[in-house]
Amino acid sequence: MSELEKIRELYKLLSPCYLCPLNCGAKRLKGEQGTCNSQVVPRISSYTLYKGEEPPVSGQNGSGAIFFSNCNLRCVYCQNYNFSQLGKGKDVSVLELSEIMMKLQSMNASNINLITATHFLPQSIAALRLARQKGLSLPIVLNTSGYESLEVLRLLEGFIDIYLTDFRYATDEEGIKYSGVPFVSTFTLSAIKEMLRQVGNITFDSKGIMKKGVIIRILVFPNGIENLRKILRIIKKEFSTDIYISLMSQYVPVYLAKNFPEISRKLIKYEILESIKVLREEGFKNGWVQYD
Ligand code: SF4
Asked: Is 34 in the pocket of ligand 1 (CB under 6 A)?
């Protein structure tokens, strides 16, 4: 399938919307909003050179991050709830989005990083194609919760070089409780399989900047060591211990987390150390630990 055909197929999934596993069927071209509160015009919170990603993704100058507003998940602890849940941001056209990508390239970004773009993927990929026609040559990162439709992911082949995906819950029940959506764990697993099929494990350029591949991010929750161990065992069983893991220990109980006593605090030092120990015990050697 050509690039144009893939973009056309993506747009067909936009209205009625079947872009994510919620398949809520909102007629977005007619002004309806789906569960993700999104209409048809992309909304972004900000764009910037961002140094908070994993070192080979940020590179020296920072990743060219575009933060999209709204989200198909309803995570009660979301650190970005101002724009992911409350929808703060600015509407931009596909043309403006492509210009932002070009601007980030002119600022020497290491890549273009689409942060939680699931609900705006047709528009983002159309913008990307436009930007490429104007000379965009950076690797493209899709930064995702992992709650992705397989049909949509397949259409991204050839557009996305790097997948940064969360794997948050060992079981689907926790996904319902904390993120308000069904089958998160199941969809994440099949999504990662497809991501690895497309881009394989990590490759770096001569300066150590990531060119292609998949990084799996695991957020460590308070009281979450067992969840972490189970996720690592799933990854080990389904893929391999060669996968790059980014252990995220910087959890902060913001937004609605106070309503869930077991996750209503930061990690204690013991949990951070224990999570690193579990990573090693399960045989994973590649990756990073983020503290803040
Ligand atoms: S992306 Fe939004 S509108 Fe589309 S299916 Fe998912 S929740 Fe519904």
From this structure: yes
**Ligand 1 near 181 CB (within 6 A):** no
Instruction: State in Å: Cα 16 to ligand 1 middle.
Output: 9
What letter does residue 283 receive in the DSSP assignment? T
**CB of 190 closer than 6 angstroms to any ligand 1 atom:** no
**Where does 69-190 show beta strands of DSSP type E?**
90-91, 112-115, 140-144, 162-166
What's the whole-model pTM score? 0.96
Cis peptide before 16 (omega within 30 of 0): yes
Residue in 17, 43, 118, 152 to alter for ligand 1 test, most ligand atoms within 8 A of Cβ: 17
Quickly name the fold that domain 3-290 has: TIM Barrel (3.20.20)
* CB 13 less than 6 A from any atom of ligand 1: no
Residue nearest to atom 3 of ligand 1 (CA): 34
Q: How far is the CA of 113 from the centre of ligand 1 (A)?
A: 21
Give yes or no for residue 24 CB within 6 A of ligand 1.
yes
Cβ neighbourhood burial of 206 (10 Å; 0-12, 13-18, 19+) = exposed
Listed by start position, the domains of the chain span 3-290
H-helix or E-strand containing 72?
Answer: none
The one-digit pLDDT tens for each residue of the chain (292 residues) are 999 999 999 999 999 999 999 999 999 999 999 999 999 999 999 999 999 999 999 999 999 999 999 999 999 999 999 999 999 999 999 999 999 999 999 999 999 999 999 999 999 999 999 999 999 999 999 999 999 999 999 999 999 999 999 999 999 999 999 999 999 999 999 999 999 999 999 999 999 999 999 999 999 999 999 999 999 999 999 999 999 999 999 999 999 999 999 999 999 999 999 999 999 999 999 999 987 6
**Nearest-CA neighbor of 59 among 73, 49, 74?**
49
